[in-house]
């Protein structure tokens, strides 16, 4: 009974708390690109066994459109969502099959809204053909609004390796020798071949579930990023949690190595 009363009181107070955070936010300092590690689905499922979602993946997927709406409201322009890492393939075949199907359905739902340009980033060659074809067929549908990168079969080290391979292939196509390719090699050149080429690097990276590590997420792009770690599991991530992350970011003095 007391737990229900506390929950009711919180439901009354949170709108006021959100309003106070929004009032104090400096939206001129909103990050242009936010990356999110959607972590904690399975732990959420264990904590909520009555929800009938044994791995929590459906609950996590249902949060995505709501979250992107918050990003729209905050004028974030690019969002990268880490949905599946290359390491996740170590899980059981049944869980991976379920997760891949949910990811495919989620991509369809995002595209059907017509609200965002959806781009798949990752080692898509590791995915089953039906899903890789679906992801490769995604096309820009508008020239405004939030761009959404869905990081699927993604690993930061794999991305850098792929970028270097693509760079060397382009040098070879241009008729350059290995010595010429080495002379031309620079951070700017490698950046042209990253999965997120042409997009700004993320200013803010958020990880849910209380884990305080990036786990290889956007290794190259996060060199100057600010990090925000939230205790909530991803399915429980609320708008107030997102606003807290934006507030924390706006209060930081970004030094860029100085």
From TrEMBL:
InterPro entries: UPP_synth-like, UPP_synth-like_sf
Annotated GO CC locations: plasma membrane
Pfam families according to UniProt: Prenyltransf (PF01255)
Any one Gene Ontology BP term: polyprenol biosynthetic process
Protein name as it appears in the record: Unannotated protein
Keywords: Transferase
Gene3D superfamilies referenced in this protein's UniProt entry, alphabetically: Decaprenyl diphosphate synthase-like
Keyword set includes Transferase: yes
GO molecular function: ditrans,polycis-polyprenyl diphosphate synthase [(2E,6E)-farnesyl diphosphate specific] activity; Z-farnesyl diphosphate synthase activity
Listed transmembrane segments: none
Organism of provenance: freshwater metagenome
């Amino acid at each position: 009974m007391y737990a229900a009363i506390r929950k009711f009181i919180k439901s009354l107070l949170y709108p006021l708390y959100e309003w106070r955070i929004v009032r104090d936010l400096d939206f001129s300092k909103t990050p242009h690109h936010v990356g999110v590690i959607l972590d904690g689905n399975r732990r959420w499922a264990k904590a909520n066994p009555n929800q009938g979602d044994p791995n929590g993946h459906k609950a996590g997927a249902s949060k995505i459109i709501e979250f992107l709406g918050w990003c729209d409201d905050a004028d974030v322009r690019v969002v990268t969502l880490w949905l599946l890492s290359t390491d996740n393939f170590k899980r059981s075949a049944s869980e991976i099959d379920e997760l891949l199907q949910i990811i495919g359905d989620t991509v369809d739902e995002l595209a059907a809204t017509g609200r965002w340009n959806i781009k798949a980033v990752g080692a898509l060659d590791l995915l089953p053909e039906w899903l890789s074809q679906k992801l490769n067929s995604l096309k820009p549908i508008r020239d405004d609004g939030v761009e959404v990168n869905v990081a699927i079969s993604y690993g930061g080290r794999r991305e850098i390796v792929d970028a270097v391979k693509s760079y060397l292939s382009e040098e070879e196509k241009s008729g350059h020798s290995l010595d010429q390719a080495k002379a031309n090699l620079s951070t700017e050149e490698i950046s042209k071949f990253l999965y997120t080429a042409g997009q700004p690097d993320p200013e803010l990276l958020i990880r849910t579930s209380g884990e305080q590590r990036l786990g290889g997420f956007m290794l190259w792009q996060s060199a100057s990023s600010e990090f925000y770690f939230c205790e909530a599991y991803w399915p429980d991530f609320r708008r107030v949690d997102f606003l807290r992350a934006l507030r924390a970011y706006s209060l930081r003095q970004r030094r860029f190595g100085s």
